[in-house]
Amino acid sequence: MAQNQNEVPVDDPKDDVETANKRAASAAQVFNDLMSKPDSAIPEALLSKAEAVIIIPGAIRAAFGIGGRGGRGVVSRRTTNGWSEPVFVKIGGGSFGAQIGVTQTDYVFLIMNDTGLGNLMDDGFELGGDVGAAAGPIGREASASTNVTLNAEILSYSRSRGLFAGAALRGIRIYPDDNLNQKVYNRDGKDIIGNDDGLPAADIPASLRVVPNALSKHSARGATTSN
């Protein structure tokens, strides 16, 4: 049975802190893999403009005439203390077309402005619907100042079969995974993302710190300044 285009992945009651640790480790690995190859990496100048980064490792895409997507990952935003603790998110959505098969795809999304960040805090958003999304440029020769990158609220990247590329995606909806956020932080994702200060790095559990550490390693721009 095909997944409904607006279907949200069902929460797993067995998800726990260990689940969170594994998801954070997978997300950090995906991002480090993306940035390790200069010809397919996100340009550093572009990453330094991003207000937040969403990483979805190993999303499942099932396609039998009508395709559906489902996956879980993390988002970290810039705060006055640097990149925030990872907030857990999930994706759902569909795509129409003559497709057959099941694939796993890693997704990375750059949230480029406060509007995109605000939409994430408002219980999620749909790429190409609630927010403007575009395929992100890759490689050391890519420009971070094109009209596409300047105007898009979200820049998207995906990797299937080992190769990262910019990906123009529509119909994917991203939601907070508050089943897991509550178990890890005793807070909803909206509250965590809405905190401009975030946790100091030393206060983020070491098993989760791998995500902000990976982002800091590849982003020249540091913490935001408070107003």
Write the layout of secondary structure elements.
Layout: H1 17-35, H2 44-47, E1 52-79, E2 82-83, E3 87-111, H3 114-121, E4 125-126, E5 133-135, H4 147-151, E6 154-160, E7 163-166, E8 172-176, H5 178-185, H6 189-193, H7 210-218
Would you give an account of this structure?
It is built from seven helices and eight strands; from the N terminus they run ααβββαββαβββααα. Helix 1 packs parallel to helix 7. It is α+β, with helices and mostly antiparallel strands and 227 residues long. Residues 1-6, 63-67 and 96-100 have low confidence and may be disordered. The chain has helices spanning 17-35, 44-47, 114-121, 147-151, 178-185, 189-193, 210-218; strands at 52-79, 82-83, 87-111, 125-126, 133-135, 154-160, 163-166, 172-176. Helices cover 26% and strands 33% of the residues. It has one domain (17-216).
Question: How would you sum up this structure in a few lines?
Answer:
With 227 residues, the chain is of the alpha+beta class. It has 7 helices and 8 strands.
